[in-house]
Amino acid sequence: MCEHISRAVTAHTGSSLSKQNGKLFVDVVWYNNIRMIVEINNSQRIADIKDAFHAAYPFLQLEFFSRPHEWGKPSSITSRIGEDKLIAEIRTVQGVAAMEIHSWHTTGLVEQEFGKIFGLYIQVFRRDGSDWVQTAGTDTRTLEEQNEAGRNASQELMDGTNHSFNRENPA
User: Fold this and answer.
1) What tens digit of pLDDT does each residue of 24-72 get?
2) pTM of structure
3) What is the DSSP letter of 115?
4) How far apart are CA 124 and CA 102, in angstroms?
5) What gap in Å lies between CA 124 and CA 164, rounded to an integer?
6) d(CA 133, CA 153)
7) What are the CA-CA distances from residue 144 to residues 101, 103, 128 (Å)?
8) What is the 3-state secondary structure (H, E, C) of 7-73?
9) Parallel, antiparallel, or unpaired for β 16-20 and 60-65?
10) Assuming Cys at both sites, which of 105, 128, 151, 162 could form a disulfide with 157, CB separation 3.0 to 4.6 Å?
11) What are phi and psi of 132, to 5 degrees?
12) What is the pLDDT of residue 159?
């Protein structure tokens, strides 16, 4: 059924599809808004999920952690989990589950929902010039706003106009 729906969506919207480990990831563009449907199972690797998210939001990335973090607070870098780990090895909620991610969702909401639905502790990072910074201090911004801020910071770096010293602290 998911394959049928995905083909219909692709035919009508020009969306992009990718299949990883037998599961379908759908990135759909509706009036400049992105909707991403993520289905996670135990046979996937962290890298699979990170790649799908990064394809939808090229100036954002997900990092996975062994412990949750509080709203608006950064994750401890020492608890970051490598990309080669299987989801089965790190999740705290078992079973196959799916989640819709929209461009108007806040980064804080996406982080919380990953914990509730999948039992995975994530932090959204944003491109800031040549660095990646945690979005912890800006959890109320939408994915679209965060991605645009990353795009602008990267463009400023390429143009040689990035003189910002006010960076978020990824502690």
Assistant:
1) 444 444 445 678 888 888 999 999 999 999 989 999 999 999 988 777 7
2) 0.73
3) I
4) 14
5) 21
6) 12
7) 11, 5, 15
8) HHHHHHHCCEEEEECCEEEEEEEECCEEEEEEEECCCCEHHHHHHHHHHHCCCEEEEEECCCCCCCC
9) unpaired
10) 162
11) -115, 130
12) 61
Q: Which of 121, 110, 117 lies closest to 94 in space, CA to CA? A: 117
83 token code pair: 């990309």
Joined tokens for residue 125: 């990072």
Q: What gap in Å lies between CA 133 and CA 170, rounded to an integer? A: 6
Secondary structure element (H or E) that encloses residue 167, with its range:
none
Contact 42, 49 (CB under 8 A): no
Q: Which amino acid is at 53?
A: F
Cβ burial of 94 (10 Å; 0-12, 13-18, 19+) is exposed
**Each residue's pLDDT tens digit, 124-142:** 999 998 899 999 889 999 9
The kind and range of the H/E element at 165 are none
Tokens 């910074």 belong to residue:
133
